[in-house]
Structure formats: C-alpha cells, structure tokens
Amino acid sequence: MPDESGDLAPEWTDISNNVCGILHGHRDVAPMAERFERLGWRSRPSSWYGYEVGTTWCEVELEPVDGQDVLLNGVVAPSRFDDLAAQLTRCGATTYALELYDEDDNLLRESRREG
Question: Which of 13, 18, 32, 73 lies at a 20 to 30 A Cα distance from 103?
Fold first, then answer.
C-alpha cells in the first residue's frame, strides 16, 4: 500500500479533527513516528514528547499520556479510515481503538484491535 508523500491535500486542511483514538502500550512515540516515516509518511516533533505524522490523505498527532498509552487525533480522508488502521498495525500497534466522526461530531465508524 504505497502512500502519497507530501502535505495534507487541500480538501482536508480546513476541516476540524475527524479521527481520534488511543494506542495501548506505546509510551515512547518516537519509534512509532519513525516507523510511519519509513512507510513514506512525513514526521516531525510537535511537542516535547509528541509527533505529527502525515501524508496527503491523513495528518495526526501522536501524544503520550500517563501510563503506556498514546493519544491519536487529527484528520483523515473518510474513505481512507481503514488504511489508517492498517498503517497503525504496520507500525506496531497491537492494541488500539480508532473512531471516525462527521462534521457534526457524529460517530461514523470504529476500528478496534485487541492484542
């Protein structure tokens, strides 16, 4: 599944966050961000411990929280929601929950993976 490198496509830059999730067991975000980068995504630090990773169809923040979890939030092209879930798996996320919302904050889809 090749990814389109580059900035987020213009049709997605003006919408508010439509995807959020939690990745369990990934306290250190840097290795996960590096895995996204090896898959062709851009990656940059966004805070002391967080990273922004993205491609033309998705841009998300990965931010560690207390314990061993990482919060994920950002924008994904709704038709690529399953691709984002697949990317998480390819990046080593064995347990996660992901949610996709519409512009009125109604839950559209969920994806869960149990370790």
Answer: 32
